[in-house]
Amino acid sequence: MWTEEHREWATVDYSSLKDGTAFPKGFMWGVATASHQIEGGNTNNWSEFEPRSKSQQLSGLACDHWNKRTEDIELISALGVSHYRFSIEWSRLVPEQGRWDAQAAQWYSELVDELLAKGIQPMATLHHFTHPVWWDELGGFERTENIQHWIDFCVRIFDLLSDRVEWWCTINEPAVYTSMGYVLGEFPPGVRSFKRTRAVALNMMRAHAQCYRALKQRPFGRRSHIGLVKNINLFDPYRRWNPLHWLQAKLLDGMFNRCWIKALKTGRFRPPSGLRSYKIPGIKGSSDFIGVNYYTHLLTTPFMPTKVEIDPLIRPWETRTDFRYPMYAEGLRRAFDMVKGLNLPIIVTENGVADDDDDMRPEHVRRHLQVTAEAIADGLDVRGFYHWSLMDNFEWAEGYDQRFGLYHVDFESQERTLKDGGKEYAEIVTSHRMPQVVIMAGGLGTRLGSMTEKTPKSLIEVNGKPILSHILDWAQAQGCLNALVLTGHLAEHFDGFTHSGMAVKFHREPSPLGTGGALWNAKEHLEERFILLWGDDLHPIDYAGLIETHQKGEAPMTMCATESHTEMNLRHQNGVLEAYDKTSTLEGLNGYEAGTSVVEKSVVMEHGKSGVWSWEQTVYPALAGRIQIHLDDTPFWDMGTPERLALLEEFLKKTTL
Fold it and tell me: What is 436-654's CATH number, 2.40.30.10, 3.20.20.70, 3.90.550.10, 1.10.443.10?
């Protein structure tokens, strides 16, 4: 049967996590929350159950996220992540049967807009343990006829947000919902009934299938990524020599994990403790990805406790988390292996640790990301990692006693403070993030005639949209989240310009300042390292290779050059720039500046000055012999003349960036 791996973590080399080489370009770095746990002021099945819960603590104001949304989005942005998973509270949108709350819907719409403005992609969860009281009174998931109410809600919120939200989770952890609510009695409705468990489990899978099929038929449905989120809780025999312990592990694994996963592949579902399987219309192939929530493994015996209050068994060398289960990062790879047979992209939709004093969280982050990186290197299609949770929150039956956040929350003052674990996660994330893109976009052009007499070249349409949009498309595809567009003194031409999925900031000049003056004028908005682009050039190169060259050389600036251009304007030797000559009259020119450079902000601060000045004529001579050259002969498109503009138009007609 399965192997229970344990490794010597003290000997593991984590260096690739910090040097930005552990994860691929475009990896989804995220954090996750759930509505009832952070929003505050909710009235739903959980708020009704709380006085009878284990802790008897009331969610109440929670993190007051409903009123602190913008502030909390700043916290997400500060971590450097590219994605945010949140859930949508059905009870807010439909507090009474048949009544839609337009103000609540607007709140979620604004949440999405604010995330996108920060370059953060939203992932919405449609059911995360909570639903309206009126639906609960109808029987919730216990009655098949109630499913349509939830489908109606899902379709309506999907229609509202799917023009901007591409990632959707249908149901979060159906096995946890059923086992905690109907087997252990720790979640609402707080009962112990295998008969009701089977009915709820079957209807949750029916609901997922119907939701997936309904949303796929809506506008934007085909482009949306819709999937089920499955908590993988590994079960290992406490005594590996004892067949009864093995039998218990296999039984629990089948009920909690295998039966749910199998249904997505076969189209048939045997509910936990059920004797027969049921064919569920639409369930086969009803996920575009599989969300994996992973926290731990449990050691099984025939007499293992069924009460959460009793500490689970652990190996002598394992460390207990505050939740009392062990930290077992090795199991994350086993969770991946359990779902890989679905042949779906895998996304870690939750992983985190209850750790009040934060002494365990940094190592927990490192171990689980190391396991994820190794799985990707071994060929598993793991697309993203969402840390649970953004901040401390209301932890269901545990109330406020368990803290999972990257940010500490003082629930009296509602003050948020970044923990060391949060700093560790942010450091790893940012080491894999592409730098800020800075685009010189305000230049006019004489050689393009009347079309650029008053309109910046970057806004000239090529193949149906401005070249600036094409440049941003490519930068986004390379993993860039933030763009600073320097508009010159013609900022009004950029009014209304947006680019979905990236945070795009426009900065204008009081008067024409030249290329160097424009950068100096925007120095407060420059990150410590940035990718410098020209707004009338399209250079679709692999940014990762350029960044790698820059990091290895430790140069103040790395310039991309090509030796395949029709003209030459620089001389390079031994990997460095020797001379730059825009007039192309210098002897021995053997390369052409290809419009993409990596620049340390210190270069701007050292050589910059107020007034009008040229970046090329000032910085390139000053740094001759110190600017690294990154050779790349990817076709370079300069739209400076009508002939070149026509060539770019032809290229874009044939190519999808």
Answer: 3.90.550.10
